[in-house]
Amino acid sequence: MLDARPTPSSDDAARPVLDPASLDQLRQLDPTGSGSFLVRVLGTYARSLDKHEGEARQARDAGQWDAVARAAHTLKSASASVGALTFSQICADIEGRIRRQELDQLDQ
């Protein structure tokens, strides 16, 4: 997606990509306890990520910032729901900068 990342800290290197507590919550929703629910949720998330990232790139290249903001908003929510909290924060930052018309602060 767009590079609007906060400056990484030493804590970021040690932080898992997916929040373990969020994954545990998803595991608790699995009626069979087999883990298949978590696999399906993460598979759906990965497909959504690919789709919306591609849409955001195309919209950015075309200067369609509202479409970029919509993709960032969708990815923000979806990422938070699976525990990709850092990526969710990045998407929130991108969405906010676009909404505030701070386009010059978004790296290409």
Please describe the topology of this protein.
Elements: H1 10-14, H2 20-28, H3 36-61, H4 65-82, H5 85-99
Helix pairs in contact: 3-4, 4-5
Compact overview of the structure:
The chain has 108 residues and is mostly helical. It is 68% helix and 0% strand. The radius of gyration is 15 Å and the shape is elongated.
Overview of the structural elements:
The protein is mainly α. The protein is 68% helix and 0% strand. It has helices at residues 10-14, 20-28, 36-61, 65-82, 85-99. Helix 3 packs antiparallel against helix 4 (65-82) and helix 4 (65-82) runs antiparallel to helix 5. The radius of gyration is 15 Å and the shape is elongated. It starts with 9 loop residues before the first helix and ends in a 9-residue tail after the last helix. Mean pLDDT is 89; it is low at 1-5.
Unreliable stretches: 1-5
Specify the number of helices.
5
Distance between the termini: 9 Å
Beta-strand fraction estimate: under 5%
How many individual β-strands?
Answer: 0
The rough form would be described as elongated
Defining key terms:
108 residues; mainly alpha; 5 helices; elongated; disordered N terminus
